[in-house]
Structure formats: C-alpha cells, structure tokens
C-alpha cells in the first residue's frame, strides 16, 4: 500500500507539498497540484484517517451511543444524524449500549482511542459518571433524548411531559380513570418526565395516581408482557387503559392481553409513545404520541457541528414538540373493538 512518501517521490515534490494539496492547508501551484493528484490516482493512494488526525488534530468522525438499534425509533434518529454529518464531510461511529452503563463506558473508551471529534449520546441508566471527564475537558458533546441530572451541555429531546399529557387527555376523554403507565428506568429524564405528567394529569382530573399503576424497568417486549400481567392480576382494580413508553413495550402488552383473552380497546385500551406507518393498518388500533425521531437526530448533528466549530459558544437545549395520532375515537369503552 502506497504511503505519502511514495506519492511525494512519484510526483517529485516534498511530503509537505503532498500534505498541503490533500488537506488544502496551504497554497500550492496548479502545476504541482496536478502532479500530486496524478500520483495519488496512479498509486491508488488513500490517506489514513488517523494519520491525518495526528497532523490536523481532526479525524472528521463523530461517535454516537444509542440504547438499541433494533428499535426503529433509534434507527430513524441515527438516519437524521448521518444525513447531516455526511453532508458536512463527517463519518459516524455507532455504539449499541443495550442501555448498560458498562457498555457505555467501553464504547466511550473506543471512541477516545479513535480520536472522534465529537459525541452524540443517549445516556445509559446510571452511566452519568462516565460523562464527567468529557464535560470537564469540554469535549464537544450533545445529549439526545435523555439529559442526565445536573449535566450542562447541548441537548435535543422530545417534550415527554407534553406528549404524555396529550395521551392522558385522550384516554381521560374516552372515560378512563384507571390508567397505568409502563416506562423505562426513572433515572432517565424522559421516563421521569412521563411519570410526572401521568401523575399530574390524573390528579388534575380528580383521580388517584396509585403507585402500583406505574411499572419502571427495561423498555423491551418482555418487560411490557410482565408489566401487563402484573396489572391484569389486580382483579377489580385492573387498569382499563395502559400507556407504553415505546412500541416494543406495547407489543409485549398486547401479547399479554391475547393470552388473557382480553380485547383491545374494549377491555383494555393500549396506547404508546412511539409511532410507525404500519400502525395505520395494525389491528388492534393503537393511539400514539408521535416523537419527531428523524428531526431529533438532524438537530443533534447540527448542534454538534456548531459545538465543534465554536467550543465556547452558548449552550443550546432544544425541546421538540410531540403530536398525538388518534386511532381509537369516541367516548367510553366498547366504542371500538379490536383483536
């Protein structure tokens, strides 16, 4: 494999001239530029990204941590990030943490070794301690979706309080008063905000917000199934509506209802805070909060690019508006039938 010295010899110039042409770091005459570029093509030379990083202090790469790439929500966020970074000439390194602090720590070490120029992070539960060194060194960093307590930095997230209020108002308007919530760990800001908004909506409507009507755990189908089984075992206190924090939880909830031979929405109405096009033809019908996932990723990438170019600029926190998509209409249970 050819190196920069081989290119310099082939073009009959210095290695400094080759570097200046490839990195556009200094003026080089058109004649020498053509000789360098011809040598690059003839030798099939590809500049090593890490070597360029040693020369310029930049690698044109960003690292991103997400909880679960199998979740379509995160896949859309990643696409928004990639589209913006690619246009700006950056490549993206992706780490799937499975929402585990130890995996987050491992990937942050990998990103440091790769000398990424900036980071985009969905913080893992209880993983805040790993971020302290990055914040103290003013590493370009943007939090997405989840903002750790006390963290000072750029962030982009959906307004989970407002989104929860939208779905709660819809369910209350349909005559439900026993509404349960299945969400992720309360240590994560998005889940904490959902719980706060759930309590507030019920109490403002004059209803109780029982502690055993909230289940916080992993955001997986298995967790949704187990939480739904727990709620269904409450007998006469069984919730008449369930709000799942994402569509993976929702699928587990529906599996539990099928197993119990309960109909949705006539026996138990299920709602979710994730939306997808296929839900328009999905049975049973599920009303959802639409989170602007692609926009979240694109905005986060824009913030990171700005932070990398202006490290001392004012911190920016963006809260994106959530919308409600109603697929079960009317008032009172039994209006629509599914399953």
Index terms:
339 residues; alpha/beta; six-stranded parallel beta sheet; 12 helices; 12 strands; disordered C terminus
Short description:
The strands form two sheets. This protein has a six-stranded parallel beta sheet, sandwiched between helices.
Describe this structure in words.
This protein has 12 helices and 12 strands. With 339 residues, it is an alpha/beta fold. It is elongated, with a radius of gyration of 25 Å. The termini are far apart. Mean pLDDT is 88; it is low at 334-339.
Strand order of the largest sheet: 2-1-3-4-5-11
**What is the overall silhouette?**
elongated
Structural class designation: alpha/beta
Mean pLDDT: 88
Number of strands: 12
Low-confidence stretches: 334-339
Name the helicity range: 40-55%
Over the alpha carbons, how many angstroms does the gyration radius reach?
Answer: 25 Å
List the helices and strands and how they pair.
Blueprint: H1 4-11, H2 15-23, H3 30-43, H4 49-56, E1 61-66, H5 72-87, E2 91-96, H6 101-113, E3 118-121, H7 132-136, E4 141-144, E5 154-158, H8 160-173, E6 179-183, H9 189-204, E7 214-216, H10 221-232, E8 241-244, H11 247-259, E9 269-272, E10 287-290, H12 293-309, E11 317-320, E12 323-325
Parallel strand pairs: 1-2, 1-3, 3-4, 4-5, 5-11, 6-7, 6-8, 8-9, 9-10
Antiparallel strand pairs: 10-12
């Amino acid at each position: 494999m050819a190196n920069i010295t081989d290119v310099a010899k082939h073009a009959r110039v210095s290695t400094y001239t080759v570097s200046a042409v490839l990195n556009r770091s200094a003026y080089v005459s058109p004649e020498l530029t053509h000789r360098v570029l011809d040598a690059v093509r003839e030798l099939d030379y590809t500049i090593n990204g890490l070597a360029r990083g040693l020369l310029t202090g930049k690698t044109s790469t960003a690292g991103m941590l997400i909880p679960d790439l199998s979740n379509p929500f995160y896949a859309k966020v990643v696409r928004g990030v990639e589209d913006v970074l690619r246009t700006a000439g950056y490549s993206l390194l992706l780490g799937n943490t499975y929402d585990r602090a130890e995996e987050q720590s491992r990937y942050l070490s990998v990103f440091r070794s790769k000398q990424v120029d900036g980071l985009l992070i969905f913080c893992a539960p209880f993983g805040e301690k790993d971020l302290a060194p990055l914040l103290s060194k003013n590493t370009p960093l943007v939090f997405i979706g989840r903002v750790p307590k006390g963290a000072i930095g750029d962030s982009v997230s959906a307004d989970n309080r407002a989104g929860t209020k939208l779905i709660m108002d819809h369910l209350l308007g349909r005559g439900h008063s026993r509404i349960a919530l299945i969400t992720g760990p309360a240590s994560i800001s998005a889940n904490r905000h959902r719980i706060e908004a759930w309590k507030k909506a019920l109490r403002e409507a004059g209803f109780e917000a029982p502690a055993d009507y909230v289940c916080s755990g992993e955001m997986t189908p298995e967790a949704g199934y187990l939480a739904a089984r727990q709620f269904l075992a409450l007998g006469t206190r069984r919730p008449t509506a369930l709000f799942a924090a994402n569509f993976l939880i929702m699928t587990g909830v529906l599996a539990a209802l099928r197993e119990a031979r309960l109909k949705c929405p006539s026996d138990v109405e299920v709602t979710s805070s994730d939306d997808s096009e296929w839900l328009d033809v999905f049975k049973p019908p599920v009303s959802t909060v639409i989170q602007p996932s692609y926009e979240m990723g694109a905005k986060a990438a824009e913030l990171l690019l700005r932070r990398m170019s202006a490290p001392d600029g004012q911190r920016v926190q963006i809260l994106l508006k959530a919308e409600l998509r109603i697929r079960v209409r009317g008032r009172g249970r039994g209006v629509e039938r599914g399953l």
